Amino acid sequence: MALFGFFSKEKKESLDKGLEKTKDSFFSKLGRAVVGKSKVDEEVLDELEGVLISSDVGVETTVKIIQRIEERVARDRYLGTDELDRILREEIAALLSDNRTVDVGDDFNLPAGKKPYVIMVVGVNGVGKTTTIGKLAAQFHKRGKQVVLGAGDTFRAAAVDQLKLWGNRVGVPVIEHGMNTDPSAVAFDAVKKAVDMEADVVIIDTAGRLHTKVNLMNELTKIKRVMQKVIPDAPHEVLLVLDGSTGQNAFIQATEFTKATEVSALAITKLDGTAKGGVVIGISDQFRIPVKYIGVGEKIDDLQTFNKMEFVDSFFKK
């Protein structure tokens, strides 16, 4: 049963389907861990720890979950392994509710009083950054918002061309200067265009190279500084896109980018093609940055706003 009524039936079905590989892998491992055991004891907890870590939940978050279950075992004296699914579900839901991030809701809303709302998108090549920008543009456009895109990943011709294709597909303008041009000049022109046409939102792509941390920081700082000549408090959001199928590598990328710039929101993509969806639980818990969007399929509507409770519900749904 869904935990919040505002979640549409279609969206819930898409989420359930997108997490199938993760769920099947997790419950297969969990089944092997408790086979022949009737009571949740130290041995079962050791096995469970291994299951969570191998499901890419992350060591730090796994330790928190195990500690919570240990406290319940101590309090309740006896917990059967047949209750483990329910207990895990409750404790993971509670853990995610305890952290300081909040769900963004079931819509692609934009904050009031910020027009145009400026989103700078960062992330390494291959994580689905440009596709995420295209799908975001489509979702905003579908809701009647005027959108401008800035092709600021000027080191890859493919990134510029792909964003232009998305612009044509969605029906929104794309500001581009071609390849090997100054990304900050693209960002400046995109923000200025958005102001001139009184657009609601402007989304700026950036280079996806983790060359060196200093170069990355300097480049992103320059883009911000140039945008601020047009809108003093831009960007309003720095969205880091991570590929969920890379598991622990997504944690490493999140660590590097949060050191290099002030990331304010996360998008985790490609969850439908992997058994590593547990990474969403760990990243949501550890980085204290809202996971704002998740990608659970190829279709435009398969980019969803992230709801922690619905995610846990789908993760444990049988």
Please provide a written account of the structure.
Helix 4 (59-76) crosses helix 5 and helix 9 packs across helix 10. The chain has helices at residues 9-18, 20-34, 42-54, 59-76, 84-98, 129-142, 157-170, 183-196, 213-227, 248-260, 279-287, 308-315; strands spanning 117-122, 147-150, 174-175, 201-205, 237-243, 265-269, 291-295, 303-305. It is built from 12 helices and 8 strands. The protein has an 8-stranded mixed sheet with strand order 3-2-4-1-5-6-7-8, sandwiched between helices. It starts with 8 loop residues before the first helix and ends with a helix. Residues 1-6 have low confidence and may be disordered. With 318 residues, the protein is an alpha/beta fold.
- Give the rounded overall mean pLDDT: 88
| Rg calc | 21 Å
Helix-strand topology string:
HHHHHEHEHEHEHEHEHEEH
Q: Percent of residues in helical segments?
A: 40-55%
Strand content: 5-15%
How many β-strand runs? Answer: 8
Low-confidence stretches: 1-6
- Spatial gap, N to C terminus: 11 Å
Main β sheet profile: 8 strands, mixed
With strands numbered from the N-terminus, the spatial order across the biggest sheet is: 3-2-4-1-5-6-7-8
Number of helices: 12
**Apparent shape:** elongated
What structural category arises from helix and sheet content?
alpha/beta
Primary descriptors:
318 residues; disordered N terminus; 8 strands; single chain; cytoplasm; 8-stranded mixed β-sheet; alpha/beta; SRP54_GTPase_dom; 12 helices; EC 3.6.5.4
Task: Characterize this entry briefly.
By secondary structure, this protein is α/β, with parallel strands linked by helices. The chain contains twelve helices and eight strands. Mean pLDDT is 88; it is low at 1-6.
